[in-house]
UniProtKB/TrEMBL annotation:
TM ranges: 38-57, 78-93, 99-117, 124-142, 154-179, 191-211
Name listed for the protein in its UniProt record: Uncharacterized protein
Species, as recorded: Streptosporangium minutum
Sorted UniProt keywords: Membrane, Transmembrane, Transmembrane helix
Domain of life: Bacteria
Lineage, broadest ranks: Bacteria, Bacillati, Actinomycetota, Actinomycetes, Streptosporangiales
Amino acid sequence: MAAVVVAVVVSLVRDSLEPAWTVVQWYPPPRFADETSLLAVLGGLLLVGAVNSWMFWQVLQGPADAAPLPRRALWLRRLLYVYVGWLLIPVPLPDEVGTAFDVVLWVPIVILFAQVLTRSGPAFRLILVITALASTVLSSVLEAVSPDSYADWAAPVLSAVSLALVAAGLAWFLMILIAQRRDGRWTRTTMVLGACQLAALPVTVVLNQLVGFPESVVLSDLLDVLVVFQLVWLARTAHELNRPGTAPDPEPLRSPRPLLALMVLAPLAVIAPEAKPHMTYTWLDADCSSIPLFADTPPRDRRRVYLCLAGNGRFYENIRFWSAGGPRVADQQLLGKGWKSCAAGDGKVRAEALVYLCPEVVARDRPDLLLTAAQLRQREARERARRRQEVADEAAQYVSGCRDPWPALRTSRQVTAVHLPTDWDGYHIFDGRKASLEALYAETIESDSPLVARRGAAMVSTTLEYGATCVTVKVLRTAPPIRRKGWDDVVDADLVLGSGRVYLKGRGIKVGVALPKAGKYRVRLHTRTLDEGVGEDLVVVFPASRSMLLPEVTTSS
């Protein structure tokens, strides 16, 4: 009841019927509920919640301590408790299965009722069994027959038969109340509650006739609370079975076993099996544009992600996927293939998709697939830092052996570093701005020169596939003399170094040297191979002018 009150307050605050309706009725509100007055419906829900709370209080009270029950009375109590649970707890079953279960459970209850009640003669108990079975089994059979199969003359006849069966059910209930009163084991309160349930059906019909649509839809849902009288009556009947009666039990009414078997199996016979299994194809319409990692996917969405990955056909070997004019693959086929791989590990499904079905199996061989995106970024960052440190340590071992290739050309702005080429990759000379490198990458430059420049960046090619190259950078205020002797190539190019510094970046090399000022500079590259796997480069940077320049200048095309 406290939960109901809190839900009603939340509905008032949010101006929405959904919280209170869901807590009280255990299912979302009907479509026309919003067209009814909110305060009126909330008042009805508050009343329904109070009645339901009283119902739980009555149902959950156990039977009083007493002498052991006879075998039939004990089984009647057990079946009554099971039937109360069946009515109280919503079970998502198909209509045909639910009807069959209800009949199979109710038939032995009515038979045991007739055998347990005292002070009722054999004829009275026989009428009890016949009316109960007619109203239960025959009604289920009529409901199972499709109306389209009726002939024109049969419709009114069947309608009259249905009405007669309803009357038979009411007659059975009235006879049970009379028999309880004669028996003496049940209290007056229990019988009054049974009488309230007997009057609930006509009350519901009359109210629905008086109230117009759509209010009657909401009212019908609220009037479902009247079933509490049946639940409480059944529970109290089971509770009070062990109270002493006023007369000894008469000779029990024994029913022929073949008749009981026929009554139980007849409703099951009218339930036809499905011709084909119900297949779904949700992966065809699913949005598979963004596939999150397993650890970042909520559990409720993991099956949908698996269907997206498996449905595109890249993760299976021996399954024919849907194509234009071919058979479609259902969700159940994809899931079946996945569960089979989970159980047998046959490798028909790639681990990237299988992890969304059975992560505990995939984790044995691929624990990395269970990491979050943040954990993967951290691991990749640690791996990059480790590789950079390895390269830096390797370069530090070589730099001590590098010497100044032009000691006579002195300057206070110079630095020596080591470039470690792999697979012929070179290094860059630029002004430290990322945009300068992007502009260089954006152009397709074809040149045989080891120095290719584009505005603020230049690419230096290497003659070594693997090894080490000592790179010395000298920044001068004036152009140095041209010196070719001892060098394999000497080329230069113009660079616009707008940051006031010149940077060299490559594998193992990341250095910067300050310039006198920002502006246009000339970069002269001297390169030579000293030994197999050992090279030496000299990079001279000086302000651009027309004096002391090489006659052949390499620039970008």
